[in-house]
Automatic annotation (TrEMBL):
<dbReference type="InterPro" id="IPR032974">
    <property type="entry name" value="Polypren_kinase"/>
</dbReference>
<keyword id="KW-0418">Kinase</keyword>
<dbReference type="GO" id="GO:0005789">
    <property type="term" value="C:endoplasmic reticulum membrane"/>
</dbReference>
<feature type="transmembrane region" description="Helical">
    <location>
        <begin position="113"/>
        <end position="134"/>
    </location>
</feature>
<comment type="similarity">
    <text>Belongs to the polyprenol kinase family.</text>
</comment>
<feature type="transmembrane region" description="Helical">
    <location>
        <begin position="519"/>
        <end position="543"/>
    </location>
</feature>
<feature type="transmembrane region" description="Helical">
    <location>
        <begin position="200"/>
        <end position="218"/>
    </location>
</feature>
<keyword id="KW-0812">Transmembrane</keyword>
<feature type="transmembrane region" description="Helical">
    <location>
        <begin position="87"/>
        <end position="107"/>
    </location>
</feature>
<feature type="transmembrane region" description="Helical">
    <location>
        <begin position="607"/>
        <end position="626"/>
    </location>
</feature>
<keyword id="KW-1133">Transmembrane helix</keyword>
<feature type="region of interest" description="Disordered">
    <location>
        <begin position="1"/>
        <end position="39"/>
    </location>
</feature>
<feature type="transmembrane region" description="Helical">
    <location>
        <begin position="584"/>
        <end position="601"/>
    </location>
</feature>
<feature type="transmembrane region" description="Helical">
    <location>
        <begin position="683"/>
        <end position="700"/>
    </location>
</feature>
<keyword id="KW-0256">Endoplasmic reticulum</keyword>
<feature type="transmembrane region" description="Helical">
    <location>
        <begin position="268"/>
        <end position="286"/>
    </location>
</feature>
<feature type="transmembrane region" description="Helical">
    <location>
        <begin position="238"/>
        <end position="256"/>
    </location>
</feature>
């Protein structure tokens, strides 16, 4: 109970410190730090900061309600903003961008993609989107007319009371959030998706096909080898096919409300695997829409489609509240494409007779093989070691007063955690040394560890880059300890803090959190820009190593693996916001993926490779800092400000000019070629690209770190090729 808050009887309850009680079981949204394996003072600090942040948000909402009542002009403005939703603007951006990208592919004379195929895929995708919207509206109408339970969540849990929002006069306003997920899959309820965001269906269905189409246009206009064109085209066909499957899953879900949730989730998942396998055979063998997939072994395609649905199922069932529907679709599509690439390499090494034609004449890059081995191998490690990880988490969640009644039991309990951790590390080493490494050697013909060392030491610039990264990290740690890692003075005397100054305290905590998060955005610029300009191939491999390391550290954190699990959790919890309320913390992984994805995709245009770093390191950071400090005019229907959007545009454009011209002055080849060929029209196109990206950042509720870099990369690639 919070002090100073009256209960229904009008009495002020006494303040009780629920955190200091070791028998207290915190709420689920207070995170895994509440387990008994974390020190009590660290738990108190983490939970205090999160509760203060929530209290600040509630105070802001109350003040906005009072302001709404006080002024008729503000009331009219509020009504206007409610009528102008963010969804139509975002939908217009996605629709315009998709049509423009595929129009470029359609009008490309050098493209091997037949125009009838492009028209066919475009028709199928948009027909699916239209069908999903029509079925959703008809289902909502039927449910509203029915006298029975009026929502899917009430069918799932009949005893749950429906949440109703009231204004100051206790009049009913609405029965849910306007941004809650509407389109769902596998019969999941809205609690399976990230709150305070729309479903992002258009983003999930259209983004990766746009990226693949832009990559195909870029390659065809650069007259690259036809087998490399086929390598990109098969990925375009694959992501389009997965987008259609997602639309089918959403459409099917609309008609499964009467069924029980268990049947819907597990039954629909299993049946969707079987139906999609049959659907894959029919489409790839009988339909003219997949000319390259038709030449690919059917087992390889079925594995990729199955993995796509498996990743979706994991996101919905296991990683609840971590993703919107659009985000989980993008992540699942990308993971399935990586798995498809790994199966291509394995097929080349072990089943050469079944290898697709385009792989016979394509050069296999050892660095790309290692990147696939790192990412897919880390997923494989998580699957194989899951029993040990689950046991480690169960031990960490066991309360002290049940586990440690005597000294002897305490020793046994500690030994169990130690054994689970050691077994996990040993099994990881066995998988790496005896499964992943031999397969990688069979594909590349070289020992992966020795090749990596040779690749590092053969170039002095790579050694210098590693030294530069080390010094940058050390400097960041020093800045962190001396400047940013602080606790406000008011909290040192009163803990937990639930006093009357909670608003000021919450503002201080929010400001500190924002500075801490944006520090890593600045760090990405300092670390990664030199790598893109001087050692692109080495940076690609380094990103693969970093991503696999982040995934492994998340295993340690979430499952509380001895001895570093709890320390990692306490450290990473310092950076969470309202998008990290699920079981896993993804902000740092998203930031890395946002910077790495344009670098992995590559382009002859160096600005395209820099898209993620510029958009997140300069644009997103500037928009956040300027918008929070100086923002006064908000975009209708959003919390983003016009000043923040303008700061995004100015920061990205000026930083691009400075980086390109300064790099050209010191003789960087890619920058010199770009500056020599770029005229006024190219820079105008680039400014338009930045503006569209800034608008998407302002109106979209999807995670900026993963969506914005890919969107900007697509537009930059095509804008430069006009």
């Amino acid at each position: 109970m919070i002090s100073g808050v009256e209960d229904e009887s009008g009495k002020t309850p006494a303040k009780c410190n629920t955190i200091s009680d070791p028998r207290h079981t915190p709420d689920a949204d207070e995170g895994f730090a509440s387990s008994s394996s974390i020190e009590e003072d660290q738990i108190s600090e983490v939970i205090r900061r999160k509760r203060s942040s929530y209290q600040l948000q509630n105070n802001v909402e109350k003040r906005s309600t009072l302001d709404f009542k006080s002024s008729p002009i503000d009331a009219g403005r509020k009504i206007l903003e409610e009528k102008i939703s963010m969804a139509p603007v975002e939908a217009i951006l996605w629709t315009f961008s998709f049509i423009w990208v595929f129009f470029q592919l359609y009008t490309d004379d050098n493209s091997s993609f037949n125009n009838s195929i492009i028209a066919g895929w475009t028709t199928v995708v948009w027909f699916g989107i239209l069908l999903v919207n029509i079925s959703r509206k008809s289902t909502e109408f039927e449910l509203s007319e029915s006298s029975a339970a009026s929502s899917d969540d009430l069918l799932d849990s009949p005893k749950e009371k429906r949440r109703v929002m009231y204004d100051g006069n206790k009049k009913k306003l609405s029965n849910g959030s306007p941004n809650e997920s509407v389109n769902r899959i596998f019969g999941a309820s809205k609690t399976s998706f990230r709150a305070n965001a729309d479903d992002g269906l258009l983003c999930g269905v259209l983004l990766l096909p746009m990226v693949a189409a832009a990559k195909l246009v870029d390659g065809s206009r650069k007259n690259i080898d036809q087998y490399q064109i086929a390598y990109v085209q098969v990925r375009l066909e694959l992501v389009l096919f997965m987008s259609v499957i997602l639309l089918l899953l959403v459409f099917t879900n609309e008609y499964l409300h009467p069924l029980k949730r268990v049947i819907r989730k597990r039954g629909l998942f299993v049946s969707s695997i079987l139906v999609s396998a049959l659907f894959t055979i029919l489409i790839t063998r009988l339909s003219p829409l997949t000319p390259i997939l038709a030449e690919t072994p059917i087992a390889m395609t079925i594995v990729s489609i199955t993995m796509f649905q498996w990743f979706l199922y994991i996101c919905v069932v296991t990683l609840k509240k971590c993703f919107t529907l659009g985000e989980m679709c993008v992540i699942s599509q990308a993971a399935a494409v990586v798995v498809h690439g790994a199966t291509e390499y394995i097929c080349t090494a072990y089943y050469s007779d079944s290898t697709p034609t385009y792989l016979h004449y394509s050069d296999i890059s050892p660095s790309m093989v290692l990147i696939h081995a790192l990412v897919v191998g880390m997923i494989f490690i998580g699957v194989i070691t899951y029993p040990l990880l689950r046991q480690s988490r169960r031990l960490a969640q066991r309360p002290y007063w049940r586990s440690l009644p005597t000294v002897e039991n305490a020793s046994v309990f500690q030994n169990k955690k130690l054994l689970a951790g050691v077994a996990f590390y040993i099994l990881t080493a066995i998988i790496v040394l005896f499964i992943i490494a031999p397969i990688t050697k069979a594909i590349t013909g070289e020992n992966p560890f020795m090749w990596t060392l040779d690749f590092l030491y053969m170039s002095p610039s790579r050694m210098f880059l590693c030294l530069y990264w080390s010094l940058t990290v050390i400097t960041t740690v020093v800045v962190w300890v001396l400047i940013l890692d602080f606790v406000p003075q008011s909290t040192q005397n009163e803990r937990p803090f639930f006093g009357s100054n909670n608003g000021a305290e919450g503002k201080a905590l929010t400001s500190a959190l924002n500075k801490k998060r944006k520090l890593f955005h600045a760090l990405s610029v300092i670390m990664f820009v030199p790598g893109v300009l001087f050692e692109l191939a080495f940076l690609q491999l380094a990103f693969g190593v970093a991503l696999s390391g982040f995934i492994y550290l998340e295993y340690l954190r979430y499952f509380a693996v001895w001895p570093w699990g709890k320390s990692l959790h306490v450290f990473l919890t310092e950076f969470i916001d309202n998008r990290d309320l699920g079981p896993v913390i993804l902000s740092h992984i998203y930031l890395l993926l946002g910077c790495a994805s344009p670098v992995w995709l590559g382009s002859s245009n160096v600005l395209a490779s820099l898209s993620g770093i510029l958009a997140l390191g300069f644009g997103d950071a500037a928009a956040s800092l300027v918008g929070k400090r100086y923002g006064r005019y908000r975009w209708p229907g959003t919390k983003k400000t016009v000043e923040g959007t303008l700061a995004f545009i100015v920061a990205v454009f000026i930083s691009s000019l400075l980086i390109m011209y300064s790099s050209a002055l010191i003789g960087v080849d890619d920058a010199t070629r770009f500056v020599a060929s770029a005229g006024r029209s190219e820079w105008l196109n680039y400014s338009l690209v930045i503006t569209l990206t800034a608008l998407l950042e302002a109106f979209s509720t999807q995670n900026d770190n993963i969506i914005i870099p890919l969107y900007m990369y697509t537009l930059v690639v095509l804008g430069h090729t006009l």
